[in-house]
Amino acid sequence: MAYIFLRSPYFLTITTGSHLSAKLALTVDGTLRYTIIKNATSNRTLFEIASLARDYYVPDYGGASGATLDTVAISATWYAYDAVDGGGSQLATATVTHTGFEGYSDFWEGVAGNDIDPDDFELTNTGGSSIIYLPDNTASFAYDMNSGTATKATISTSASSVAATSGNYTWTIERICSPKYTPVKMRFINKNGTPQDQYFFLKSSKTISAKSESFKRNIFTYSSTSYDSKDHQKQTFNKNGSYRYTLNTDYISEAYVAVMQDILLSEYVWIYTSGSTSLTEGYYRPVNVVSNSLVWKSSLNDKLIQYTLEVEDANDYINNIV
C-alpha cells in the first residue's frame, strides 16, 4: 500500500527472470478502468499509473470547513506471460493498492519523491515555517497524515496554535487585524493534494474585461436605394466578459514564497465572495490564476515581504453554459 501523487509519474515495475510480456488491470474507485498489455524489455515491464488514475479525480474545494477532500482508490493487478502480447502461459501475478492525492513531487526529488509517508507528512504547505495567517476571530483547518489517513486539525476562532492529529506538527496561528480592508479568502488544492486557505489582507480590486467578435454586414436596401443610418454596419456578436481580481497579501514570512508558488501551480483555485471571513457556507467562486511569474523575495533584498496575485473567473459573465 502506497500513498502517491497523481500529478507526477508513479511506476509499477514488473521484473522476472523470463517473462516476455505483461498485462495490467487497473481498477480506480472500485471500477476496472484500464487493461493494458506491454511487451517486456530484458524481462522488465514498466507501467505508469498515476496519470491514468488521475482521470478519475473529482475536484473538491473541501466544503465550508475544509472537511472533505477527494482521493483516488487504486488497485493494480499485473500478470506476467512467457510470450509476447500477453500470449503463452501466465508466469506470475500480484495485486497492489494505492491511494492517489491530487498533488505532485518536485523534479529534483526524482522518482522516489512520489511517495507520501503515511504516518509523518505535513499536507498543509507553510513553506516549512509552521505559520498559518488568519484574520481575527476566524476558524480554519490544517492537514497531515496520521496512520494512513489525511486528517484535519480544526483551528478555532481564538486559537493561537494547533497540534496535528498525529502529534508530529504544531502550527502557530498568526492573527492579522485588517481594519481598513476586508480580507479575501482563497481556497486552493495545494501541492500535496489537500484543500488549503490563503488570506489576502491588503487592498484588492475587481475589474471586468470584455471580448467579442464582429463582422461588417450589408445594410443597404436595394429596393429603395437607401440605408438606415441607425443600423449597425459593423455588427458585434459572441460578446462576453469575465471578472479579474488583484489580491495582495499582508507582510508575511520569507518561507511563504513556497505557498505563493503553490498557488501559481495549482489547477484548482476558488475565492470566497460573500465578504464574510467566517466558515459558514457561502459561495466559492472558481478562478484561474492569471499571474504566471513570481519573484522570490527575501528579507535581505526586500526587507518586508508581500505578494500580489491576479486571478480571473473560471467562467464567462454571461451564462453560455451550452
List the helices and strands and how they pair.
Elements: E1 2-5, E2 11-15, E3 21-28, E4 31-39, E5 44-48, H1 50-54, E6 72-81, E7 90-101, E8 131-135, E9 140-146, E10 149-155, E11 161-163, E12 170-176, E13 184-189, E14 195-200, E15 205-216, E16 220-221, E17 226-227, E18 234-248, H2 257-265, E19 269-272, E20 284-289, H3 299-302, E21 308-313
Parallel strand pairs: 1-7, 8-12
Antiparallel strand pairs: 2-5, 3-4, 3-6, 6-7, 9-10, 11-12, 13-14, 13-19, 15-18, 16-17, 18-21, 19-20, 20-21
Shape: flat
Cα-atom Rg, whole angstroms?
Answer: 26 Å
Termini Cα gap: 42 Å
User: How many structural domains in the coordinates?
Assistant: 2
> What topology, given as strand order, has the largest sheet?
14-13-19-20-21-18-15
Indicate the percent of residues in helices.
under 10%
The main sheet comes to:
7 strands, antiparallel
Number of helices: 3
* Uncertain stretches of 5 or more adjacent residues: 275-281
Q: Name the structural class.
A: mainly beta
Q: What do the pLDDT scores average to? A: 92
Share of residues in strands: 35-45%
Quaternary class: single chain
What pattern of helices and strands is seen along the backbone?
EEEEEHEEEEEEEEEEEEEHEEHE
Extended strand count = 21
